[in-house]
Every structure is written in C-alpha cells, then in structure tokens.
Amino acid sequence: MSEEESVDIEQELDNLLTKVQPNLQDVIKRSFTNVALQQTKNGEQKKPDTLEDTSYFAKNTQVNLSRLELVKSPMFHMQAVSLDLKSMGLVLRCSLGEVNVKGIYSAFNENLYNLIPVMSEGHFIVSLSNMTADVNVGLFLDEDAFSFANPGIQFTHDEVLVKLSWPSPQRNGGYEFTTTEQLAKHIDDLPLTAAISLPLYALLRQKLQRHLAQALRQATSVSDLMCCNPSLLEAFSDMVTKLAQNGNKVIDMVLINMRRTLLQTCREVLQLPPIHATFLHKIGSVSFIGRLETDTGWVKNLATINRINDVSVTRPDPMKTCFHVTLRIKDLQIGYDEYRIKAMGASCSGRLAAAFTSNALHMAITVGLARWEPYAQLDDLRLQHCDAMDLHVTGLGPLSGLAG
Predict the structure, then answer these.
(1) Does the domain made of 1-228 have the CATH classification 1.10.10?
(2) What is the C-alpha to C-alpha distance for residues 364 and 381, in angstroms, rounded to an integer?
(3) Known InterPro entries for this protein (predicted)?
(4) What residue spans in the chain does CATH classification 3.15.10.50 cover?
(5) Which fold has domain 230-404?
C-alpha cells in the first residue's frame, strides 16, 4: 500500500469512527440491559453470593463475622455511557440500587469474659443505599468482538445502615430478639462494615466486570462495524495496537523509576505495627482464650511490581492524556519475625510470613500541559484484590491446633 493510500485509509477510518460512535454507544447500552434480562431469565440472580468469614478487633473486643452473603444479587442498571472509539475508552455509570449483606456476628470481650464466660452472638444486616458504580475501561479487540482491560471501578453510596439483633432472655423464660441500629455516611466509618468493605467491593467488581464483558461480546461484530472492509479492519487493528504500544512505553518508564526509587530510598520494605490482642478460639465444641503478641512486622518486595497487560490510553482533551494499567506485586509478602502466643497453659513463639500470589492494583496517571508547562499526576492507585494466601508459621509446637 502506497503512502497516499495509507493516508486515505486512515482518514476514511477516522470518518467512519466518528460516524458509527453514537450508534455503537446506544448498542452497548442496550446490550448491557439485555445481559441483565438474560441473567434474570436464567435464574442467575437467585444464586447466593457469599463472602469469606472475617474478624476484627475494636478496643478489647474481638468480633467474628461468619455466614456472610448478599441478601439479593445486585442488578446493574446503566445510567450513562460515554464511548471514545478513537482512543478506545469507555466510561459508564450504573446503579446497583440497595445492596444488603447479612451474616452472624459473635463478640468476645476479655474483661466481660473474666466475669461471666459468655459471648454475645446474633444476626446483622448491612444496607448500603443507592449504590452506584463509576466505571472506566480501555477497549481492545478480541477476535471479532470488543473486550476491555484495566477496569477502574469506584463504588459510592448514600449511607450505610447496620441492624443488629440478638436473643435476649425474658423474665418469664424464653428469649426474644432485641434489635438495634447504627447509621453512618460511609462504609468505612463503622468497624463492622469496614471489615467487609474490601471483600464486598471485590465481589461486586467481579460481577460487574463479568456483566460488562458479556455485554461487549454480544454488542456488535468488529468486522461489521468496519463495513466488512479488510483495509479498514487492518487500519483499525493497527490503531489499537499503536495506542497500547505507546501507553506501554510510558508506563514501563514510570515503573522502572518507581522500582529504582523504592530500592534507593529503602522503601521496598515497609513496617507494620506490632500486634497485641486477646482472642477466643474454638476447636470443635471447646473454646479457649489466648494472647497474641508480635514485634514490628513488615511488607516487602514492593519493587517486584509490574504491569500484567497492555496499557489503555485516553485523551479527554488535546492537552491531556490519561493512562490506565493493572499492576501486580509479583512476590508480595507480609510477616512478623517474631510472634508469641499463650493459650491453654502453654506458650510458643516463632516467625510467620504470608505470601499473596494473587493481587491486583489499578493505577491511573495523567500527563499533559498546564499553561504550557508539562506535568504528570497520579489519579488513582487502588488495591482491587489480594488473596490466595500461602501462610508459613514456625514454632507452634503444642499449639499447632491453632493452625486449624
């Protein structure tokens, strides 16, 4: 293809993208709604969504949360969508309505337990009203369909309401459930809701990404979008590839400097505060109290951070370019060089270290010109998930049953 023909094809592609973009935007919105209808028809909304058990400490009280699940699987209703085919960016907002999480709590207070050996147990429901998700993704070509990468998803809600209920003994015998409520502006304002925020958002993010992936896959054929013109299809594919390559070069330079800075400033290893906690542990039907103490801990190998896919690039205006990328810390480790446990008249000490082989962070960077002066700023650096923990503990000895 001659240089003149290449220029003509690029101009034809530019005109085509401008022409089809509004219609494709509407098609994606309809496809997003159709996926929700398909899920309802297939009964997918009836499948329970569960969260792993968790616990937290508030002053001298240990609270365990178990049997956590969404009361109802959320429906994603798209409220707004903005598509930019020339920079392969998609921004959307969707409503989840009210999201409710229910479960069982058990609270152990050391001082109270020394007087009366009981635990406070009951049920709870967390209600997050008017939850919305703001989504920013980069689009890529997957055979003859669109796919996405580097999802930046931010959840917001109006308020959080926690309802607690527990059995209260009555004078005439028997029990009745007593209920109390707590209200807060943000999910992280209350210890109980803060304990479930990360796994809850990870679950919602996973469901939303699966929903969006299916909607994009069903939305349209890329070859049909290019009018089945091989030259236009090739030019479109080349444009997408060049966008990613240019973005990769910029982010790789940033990551090289980031690793160098972490190592040179000795921040590749961060300190964790020591732990001093009294806990109640159950083995079968037997409960016992223990004490856990540690020295200062550490988070290390931060310099093993790297991108795990191509960078997505958007240009909101001619003076500004935004880069979005998904990162992983390849060898993320958290641990304590010395811990001490006392329980059931026995004691032990040793070292514990946990490796998280599955983790992901979303990073967004903007570079541009302000009053003709270049600038770069970090817009977002957010942990999306951190799981698949491999825990190694030495020195448990007679208390090895705690590992269960």
Answers:
(1) no
(2) 7
(3) Mite_allergen_7_sf (IPR038602), Mite_allergen_group-7 (IPR020234)
(4) 230-404
(5) Bactericidal permeability-increasing protein; domain 1 (3.15.10)
Whole-angstrom Cα distance, residue 48 to residue 56?
24
Tens digit of pLDDT for each residue in 123-148? 999 999 999 999 999 999 998 999 99
Q: What is the residue whose two structure tokens read 């494709």?
A: 24
For residue 282, pLDDT over 90 is answered with no
**Which secondary structure element, helix H or strand E, spans residue 73, and what is its range?**
none
Check the CA dihedral 207-210-212-214 and report its sign.
negative
Whether the predicted pLDDT of 114 surpasses 70? no
Which of 299, 312, 195 is closest to 242 using CA atoms?
312
Angle at 296 between CA 292 and CA 302, to 5 degrees: 120
- Give dist(CA 55, CA 61) in Å, integer: 11
Average pLDDT over the chain, rounded to an integer: 88
d(C-alpha 120, C-alpha 63), whole Å: 9
- Decide which of 59 and 89 is more confident: 89
Furthest C-alpha separation in the chain: 95
Determine what percent of the chain falls in helix, strand and coil, rounding each to the nearest 5: 30, 50, 20
Q: How far apart are CA 221 and CA 237, in angstroms?
A: 14
What is the DSSP annotation of 214-282? HHHHHH--HHHHTTT-HHHHHHHHHHHHHHHHHHHHHHHHHHHHHHHHHHHTT-SSEEE---EEEEEEE
